[in-house]
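pipeline/complex-builder :: batch 7 item 3
reading input block
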Amino acid sequence: MAMQEQAERLVDGRAAEVAPRVARRMRGLSDRSIAWIFITPTIALLLAINIFPLIWAIRLSFTNYKSNLGHLPIKFVGLANYVDILTDEDVWHGMQVTARFVVSSIALQVVIGFGLALLINRGFRSHGFWTTVILVPMMLSPAVVGNFWTLLLQPQIGPFNYVVGFLSGVPPRSFSMIGDVALAPWTIVLVDSWMWTPYVMLICLAGLRSIPDYIYEAAEVDRASPWRQFWSITLPMVLPFLMLAVLFRAIEAFKMFDLVNLLTSGGPGSTTELASITLKREAFEKWRTGYSSAFAIILFVTVFGAANIYVKTLNRVKRR
Amino acid sequence: MSALTTAHSVVAASPRAKAIAGFFVIAYALMSIAPLLWIGATAFKLPSDAIAYPPKFLFEPSLEGYVNLFTVRTRQTPDFIASLPPAETWYDKLVRSRNMVIAGPSKVAPRFMNSIIIGFGSTFLAVFLGTISAYAFSRFRVPLADDLLFFILSTRMMPPVAVAIPIYLMYRELGLTDTRVGMILLYTAVNVSLAVWLLKGFMDEIPREYEEAALVDGYTRLQAFRQAVLPQAVTGIAATAIFCLIFSWNEYAFALLLTSGDAQTMPPFIPFIIGEGGQDWPAVAAATTLFLTPIVLFTVLLRKHLLRGITFGAVRK
């Protein structure tokens, strides 16, 4: 007991001694050193968790390494993995599936999202409340929600088929949104759009609200038709916002994994097998680490390249 | 009132145009919220009602889904159940009426705990690092600031499955696979890019005069930061924290590929809640409801800052 008290007193004494010394030292810090002290931890963390593994992956992408058979000697195979991937028909098929998914889901989200934003912007009663309701799906976990959609879309027991059947007269048991080769690619677009249309809507809404009233007033004075006002005022002024939304959505859709992995896991066949799902199979089911590292690098380069081109275009539009 | 809920726009629409707009928007809102209501309702269905054809819109509510979610049960013969001492609790009774006996708690509580610990741990770290970095980027002339900021953002563009491959190998070497520490570090790294970008925007909006006055009064830089800037940034920090928390809470790919038990969070766990013969839908729905409800509340809380958060601070209003 006595010893513990003594120890505590000792520690307290130390702390009291140290505190002013640290403070004195900190007072001497120049703004420049504070800036570095404040930024370095973030950069260090990103280097350790993102860049170092990336460099490791680049190195592995030139080998035939299999991480489940780590004891085997690692053989350098040069560019063989890259050549294999870029000449593999399945990979190209996967890229096509991904591209189709990205383009069709963004198109749907832009049309509905922009439409909703235009409607909400008319400012009917209680539009604030309903806007919040619409925003809820995009904040939820795609995996958890995607898992539940498999029940909603069951042909036998799911309410989706039942409601569609009720409205259209098609027998609810006659089609399967997840199991049908022709429907499955549209199912992932549909569920993705259910989640992310609000995203496009919210950004478009901000764009619409950024247009000052006097421009429309001037157009009214000039007797411009509503149609004309839309094409020469609304659309051009919202365009930078819309393009930003498209950029963010495109990157996210290209990376898409969670929702689709739970909804269809790439099936039926490989009709919904997006790049990320192929990558997961190669890396974590077949354990072809070298091969999948090369695939990962190719995906990085694609995202960065596309994003860079897009940002440049975006800036050009903004300047105009 | 937030900027988004106050209508100010345009040469005002006619009452009829407003009514039409209202009709379509409310119809869309109801349609998009319907799947979530179905999840909430399924949680209170009996397993047989959950998978009935045609789908049941009206049903007798039951807590069996929630009981099944939190317990592990074994099937017993009626004779054995009759030989047991009488059931003490309502859930014991409920389970026994299905010819089963509760064998113990399920794994859902520890998985939920993992979600909470990893979520809050990574949020705290990301917001701490983000706040000081954002302050430095906002107030000091940092060489190559634009390049560093772009670098920070670009780390977020990588597909998670692609990042997981080398992380998996690195964590295996370091013994961090399936540990909370490993997941916290990983989520911190992903969140810090958002935190820096968002908080830089918030800090830029705080007038410099406050700290300059403090500096003139003899405060050091750090004291001025703590006492003049931080109190002003509280709202921004809170909003950023909620965004980070939501990301960690919802994340699936890393959790699926890098955890299997001890550190597994809810998203990879929920699809594996199975009963006798396939997914136990009421239990899955119960887990989903418990998991999603906090996020719905956060969304309402965040309403004013939502736009900023989802665009990395690119759109502010």
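note: The longest helix of chain A spans residues 89-120.
queue -> next item
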